[in-house]
Write a structure and sequence with these properties.
- The complex is a heterodimer of chains A (550) and B (280).
- Helix content of chain A is 38%, strand content 23%.
- Chain A is of the alpha+beta class.
- Chain A has two domains: 279 residues, no CATH class; 224 residues, no CATH class.
- In chain A, the strands form four sheets. A six-stranded antiparallel beta barrel of chain A has the order 7-8-9-12-11-10. In chain A, strands 13-14-15-18-17-16 form a six-stranded antiparallel beta barrel. Chain A has a four-stranded antiparallel β-sheet with strand order 3-6-4-5.
- In chain A, α1 runs parallel beside α3, α3 runs antiparallel to α4 and α7 packs across α9.
- The longest helix of chain A has 31 residues.
- Chain A starts with 9 loop residues before the first helix and ends in a 29-residue tail after the last helix.
- About 2% of the residues of chain A have low confidence.
- Chain B is mainly alpha-helical and 280 residues long.
- Among the domains of chain B are: 89 residues, Serine Threonine Protein Phosphatase 5, Tetratricopeptide repeat (Alpha Horseshoe), CATH 1.25.40; 31 residues.
- The N and C termini of chain B lie far apart (72 Å).
- The chains are: A alpha+beta (550), B mainly alpha (280).
- Chains A and B meet through α8, α9, β17 and β18 of A and α3, α4, α5 and α9 of B.
């Protein structure tokens, strides 16, 4: 019976590393057959061990524990090492038995496979990949006319077949999408699709006269777009077949089926799949307009800027709208909090306050901001979060959405990319027209003005839960009361949505008369207790006896 | 070791052998997952709703009819203990249900489709059943289109058509959006599917008129008719307004007012800070 390595345990990992080092020395001395078989055995053992821990590592949407991070980093290192050993072996085999030998081709395929896998497991500092060796191996395969030869491989405990060419592009595509925009689960979904799309990952050595990705075979870089202007060797991957495959995945979802139906990715939430579909669409569409230049970026000296995360924190601290201007008549009917609760909130507010968060601004453009932070400072900030940034004391809080989070060039640091949503958001209280005597009958939202004076592109940042119970709201601006209804979602993130709205009605009201009427008809208000700065605080536990005295 | 009331207690150290031979009363039904169709040739317009393939020994009409019956108010059932359950199970041995796998797979695909709809169209629909209201779907598709989310608008209409391909209004709205986005190939494809399914539609002349404008060489639309009066009338000039855009512009005017008032408020806040506009 075959014993599966236990990578959860340190001993299991150490044992594998010893075997890997032994193989490395074996390569130089042993016969080609012997070293080839030894590599296949080691590679198979590694796959069996990873399959065992993969569902637990990727299955949860929760943050990784330190031991999970350690294990993931170790798996990443092993994939890199295995790719390197396979590359060295392929180099040796090419000299000893020739580039067109089946074993050489298989080793090249394994090197591509593990480079691709490594791109999925990055958890710490991400090195700038040097793909020079990969391009060299691809040129080797093309020269030997073996680039279209199908190789049998094993990954996640399943046998697979792919050509060198398709494996080459799989690795480069994974590298392209592993830039921090996708979560670890989403990258796994993408890879599952890429295996299904292998027949579409076909290269051409000439410019196909249509949108395509490009790999420069004499360079060191990853995937680019568009035509190569100089006469160097390049491989092109057309985008249209990939887009067609993407649409097929959508069609399968329409039929109620997840693609692929097997594997770790098939157990992930549908939302993860939809996020990958959106990301693919964005990248494919961006590749269509290859001539469009990137928005110029202004590098900053790393000045600290205050950052708030989440709708509530932005409202409370970024927009200083902690206590909404609630009308008096509203206070009389608000019975959600008891007096004890209200006093407790006032008295112990500081206890629950999170510390202020300052990150360093490393670059800025008209469309977004780049922030650098330590792991601790950036704790809890993920792709899709809503953030408010105070760029300077003179400027208002700007609003953005976290688009990427990647390890920075220095260990322990991360870079957070933020897409700008609005340069001048405003807090605005909206009241439900059909009051339900709930705390959220009057709620603060963030108004995001659109670029048009018509107001057609205006929106509100609202809590995600509001999408499930859309209702009609009212907003008071001066003496005008607007009745509005949310009717579309223009963007979405973790726990929030950018909701478009339509105005149903507007009327001018006499605020003074309305307030007087409300006070006249309202029930007597419950007494409100508030602590003033001059009040003396009694220590809550002063009167208690210590355990020793009892 | 956890012990429950049903755990057999040892008898002088020996496990009671009479518990060992008991067969499980019920057999677990494992869901049967339908295999994905290999390489669909083209994003075919759903013509008629696909009928479930007939399986030997299964009367689908009868099954479907039974699901349409209103639920019956059942009297509460008293639990009689394991004795009763096991004796009942022995009396009526579990018969393998040929439809069980089909039902499980169907429920699973429905659930996945619902989750997809909810994730793809947040705020618009929470399940596929929400797409049954044609008027609501058309309005949401129009809003998507107005926001520049053409793919979402068309996919929403596609899914609603898959749900109910007889709803002519959905087809017409999709045709109009395709016309407005100047996608001639897809317009022709959609018009062909519409013609096949709604051959007797009174709106075909209008579809053909749009077809002539967007794909003049396409034979499907026949010869071009004469110009008509009042063609430039409506919220979208020259168009039939199948996307149900409002003729009343009050809402648009109010939106501009709302924007203006809040812009003024922001200006006041800016002035209070005494500093110029950010990014200016």
């Amino acid at each position: 019976m075959k014993i599966v390595p236990q990578f959860q345990r340190l001993e299991g990992r150490s044992e594998f590393e010893r075997a890997r080092n032994a193989l490395r020395t074996l390569l130089a001395d042993a016969s080609p057959d012997e070293s080839f078989q030894a590599f296949l055995r080691l590679e198979s053992d590694f796959d069996a061990g990873v399959v065992k821990v993969k569902p637990d590592l990727l299955g949860s949407v929760l943050c990784w524990k330190p031991e999970d991070r350690e294990l993931s980093a170790w798996i990443y290192e092993q994939h890199r090492e295995l790719a390197e050993v396979a590359r060295r072996a392929a180099d040796l085999f090419e000299r000893r038995v020739g580039a067109d030998d089946k074993r050489t081709v298989r080793l090249v395929a394994l090197a591509f496979l593990h480079w691709g896998e490594a791109a999925k497991w990055v958890v710490d500092r991400r090195e700038t990949y040097d793909y020079a060796w990969m391009h060299w191996l691809m040129r080797l395969a093309i020269d030997a006319s073996r680039n279209l030869e199908a190789c049998e491989l094993r990954l996640d405990g399943r046998g697979r077949s792919a050509t060198l060419e398709s494996l080459f592009f799989r690795t480069l595509l994974l590298d392209r999408f592993a830039g921090g925009n996708l979560t670890r689960q989403q990258i796994e979904v993408l890879d599952a699709w890429l295996w299904e799309w292998m027949p579409a990952l076909k290269a051409s050595s000439t410019w196909p006269q249509e949108p395509a990705f490009r790999a420069d075979l004499d360079g060191k870089g990853g995937l680019r777009t568009g035509e190569r202007r100089d006469p160097g060797p390049a491989l092109y991957l057309r985008i249209a077949p990939l887009e067609a495959r993407r649409r097929e995945v959508i069609q399968e979802f329409h039929r109620g089926r997840i693609v692929p139906s097997l594997g770790v990715a098939s157990d992930f939430r549908v939302e993860e799949h939809v996020a990958v579909l959106e990301q693919l669409r964005a990248v494919f569409e961006a590749a269509q307009g290859e001539g469009a230049s990137r928005v110029p970026r202004r590098h900053s000296a790393g000045a600290p800027v205050e950052v708030w995360v989440g709708l509530s924190e932005i409202l409370a601290r970024g927009l200083n709208a902690l206590t909404p201007a609630t009308p008096a008549h509203v206070l009389t009917v608000k019975k959600g909090l008891s007096d004890t609760q209200r006093i407790r909130q006032v008295q112990f507010l500081d206890e629950f306050e999170s510390p202020r968060r300052f990150l360093r601004l490393v670059d800025a453009s008209d469309t977004g901001y780049g922030l650098e932070a330590s792991e601790e400072e950036a704790f809890g900030i993920g792709v899709g979060d809503l953030v408010g940034i105070k760029l300077s004391d003179e400027q208002p809080c700007v609003l953005g959405r976290v688009a990427r989070r990647v390890p920075a060039a220095y260990p322990g640091k991360v870079v957070i990319g933020v897409n700008a949503l609005c340069a001048e958001p405003q807090a605005l209280t909206l009241s439900r027209t059909q009051r339900q005597n709930r705390l959220d009958d009057d709620e603060l939202f963030i108004y995001v003005p659109g670029g048009e004076a018509s107001g057609a592109h205006d929106a509100f940042v609202v809590h995600e839960k509001l999408l499930n119970e859309p209702g009609v709201h009212e907003a008071m601006i001066g003496e005008d009361r607007f009745t509005l209804q949310f009717n579309r979602v223009r963007g979405k993130g973790r726990g929030w949505a950018l909701a478009g709205f339509e105005i149903l009605e507007a009327r001018r009201v006499d605020v003074q008369a309305e307030r007087a009427e409300a006070l006249a008809t309202a029930t007597p208000a419950t007494p409100r207790f508030e602590l003033l700065p001059t009040d003396e605080y009694a220590h809550a536990f002063d009167q208690e006896l210590g355990n020793r005295l009892l | 070791m956890s012990i429950s009331l049903r755990t057999p207690s040892p008898f002088f150290g020996f496990a009671p052998i009479f518990f060992k031979g008991r067969e499980p009363a019920f057999k677990r039904r494992e869901p049967v997952i339908a295999k994905p169709v290999a390489k669909p040739t083209a994003p075919a317009k759903p013509a008629a709703p696909a009928k479930a393939p007939a399986r030997p020994g299964v009367d689908f009409d009868k099954l479907l009819a039974s699901t349409r019956k209103a639920p019956v108010d059942l009297a509460p059932i008293e639990w009689e203990g394991d004795q009763g359950a096991s004796s009942a199970a022995q009396a009526t041995p579990a018969v393998p249900d040929a439809t069980a796998g089909f039902e499980c797979a169907d429920a699973r695909t429905r659930r996945i489709r619902d989750r997809y709809v909810s994730a793809r169209f947040p705020g618009v629909a929470r399940a596929a059943s929400d797409l049954e209201s044609a008027a609501r779907v058309i309005k949401c598709a129009r809003l998507y289109f107005e926001d520049g989310q053409l793919a979402a608008a068309l996919e929403l209409l596609d899914m609603a058509i898959e749900q109910d391909s007889r709803a002519e209004a959905l087809w017409l709205a999709e045709l109009e959006i395709l016309f407005l986005s100047r996608d001639a190939a897809r317009f022709v494809e959609c018009a062909r599917a519409f013609r096949a399914l709604h051959g007797a539609s009174g709106q075909w002349a209008e579809v053909a008129r749009l077809g002539h404008a967007i794909a003049p060489r396409e034979a499907l639309f026949g010869t071009k008719g004469a110009a008509r009066a009042h063609e430039h009338y409506g919220p979208w000039p020259d168009l039939p307004n199948w996307i149900q855009a409002s003729w009343d512009l009050t809402s648009e005017c109010l939106a501009a007012d709302f924007h203006r008032l809040l812009e003024r408020r922001a200006g006041e806040a800016r002035a209070a800070r005494g500093k110029p506009q950010p990014g200016a």
